[in-house]
């Protein structure tokens, strides 16, 4: 982790959507990595974001950890927590 960088985070769709609305998706660069589950990615990129916001997300895509890994961890957590 570089000087001044904040460790990795898990993103929810609401902060991504609202940062996009006010044009501040670039703030995500303060994080070492952004973990976005597939559902979050689908909800942000797949629905309702303005085209320029989607372009911003793709510009920041090097920050995003492979969504499939996050989904696998979530699935494992659900299995371990029982019915």
User: What share of residues is helical?
Assistant: 40-55%
Tell me the span between the first and last alpha carbons: 38 Å
Percent strand equals 5-15%
Shape verdict: globular
Q: Given the helix and strand composition, which structural class is it? A: mainly alpha
Number of separate structural domains: 1
Overall pLDDT metric: 74
Describe the main β-sheet briefly. Answer: 3 strands, parallel
Count of helices? 4
The stretches of 5 or more residues where confidence is low (pLDDT under 50) are none
Cα-based radius of gyration, to the nearest Å: 14 Å
Question: What is the structure about, briefly put?
Answer:
This protein is mainly α. The chain has helices at 13-21, 38-45, 51-59, 67-80, and strands at residues 9-10, 34-35, 64-65.
